[in-house]
Model the fold of this input.
Amino acid sequence: MSQKNETTILALALLLTVGIVGGGFWWFTSNGVKIGNSIIPNQEPGSNPSLQDRMSFGEKSFTSGDISPVKKEGVQAIAAKSYDKAIAKFTAALKLNRNDPEALIFLNNARIGSSKSYTIVASVPFGTDPNVSLEILRGIAQAQNQVNSSGGVKGVPLRVGIANDDDNPEIAKQIASSLVSNSEVLGVVGPNTSDSTLAAGTIYTSGQLVAISPTSTSVKISNFSRYVFRTVPSDFMAARSLANYMVKTLQKKNAVVYFNSQSNYSQSLKSEFVSSVSLEGGQVSSEFDLSKADFSAAKSVEQATKQGAEVLMLAANTATLDKALQVIQINQKRLTLLGGDDVYTVKTLEIGRDQAAGMVVAVPWHIDGDPKSDFPQKSRQLWGGDVSWRSALSYDATVALIAALERNPTRSGVQQALTSSDFSTSGASGTIRFLPSGDRNAPVQLVKIVPGSRSRTGYDFEPVR
Done:
């Protein structure tokens, strides 16, 4: 490819990245903390002074951009403990924007007021990835709304807090320390990334507080702690499914992998894919590090082609997704595309468009993957549209905590319930039970990018049948 063509394509990709990120799937977009009768203690000298600003049970909104005046009034009312007013305002806010999970969580918290409750907290990256945070919160909000509408956990309602960890391992650790220090917090949903889960997990373990990540897939989390669980399958499962599909279904044997050496998730998926392809009788002829300053999409695709590669596997994480999208543009549909779950985003559809059509991505769940499940229908009724795998797996993490609280509403009781050999409950993606490793024994779903109208981009992810 000529240098002029490469420059043109890269410029186009950059313009699209800057200009279109806000659109697409509706579910990717959206316009001392007191818990019950106790307060999270002030932080130690020298710690993050803004840590309390990262926590909310309704007293502040983390939603990016301007929030509606009525939602703002709800936030002010709950901060002033005017719970009846807060209920009215959040109810009105949800009529204006029914797919706002933060407003639904705050509404349910306002309904509880100062009454007895069981408390869990979501650790999400609102500051750096608000769209993913909203996806995660939709699952948590749906589970909270469901249990509280049916009488609570054996008569006691569930209160949900939101902590903004920015997907930053150090901030996630500080939040973990704060949550551990408050005895009313009985469980955590999150963090989002594997790096943050591994970092904060050491704190949750020492404080004997259970954390269930719905989205952290690194194989390093397996057997990491008796207090750290996840509802998402590990990268081992995703890599094995992609390798099997490549060799058995596509009948292709030679691949190259794109990854980020600075990301635990990306490193994990890359390594597991290389091993799985080898076990299937194929080979990975090159590995390209997207995080390197001198990375060139054009040069890497050219090298892959010269080496006889038939497949480009994109194990990119969120931070390197733009570079992976450049690879898709440069490839011009010449080599087959595969991807990990971080590629499953509206941005891939918007920017990749026809160049990404046919790409197969491994995800933990798809809304059309299980015709027998009633979760898709219930979530559509609640939110007015389809939800993503992050919402489904966050719902499962919350449902698992609720089931554990029903057995024994203490920190030790929750941990003992989840590690019990007879623990199981029903979630969005089937039965939820945990292996001794803390992993969930569940398959992954392969999806393909095809022309479609659901996402409003002209392309959709659909299950590979």
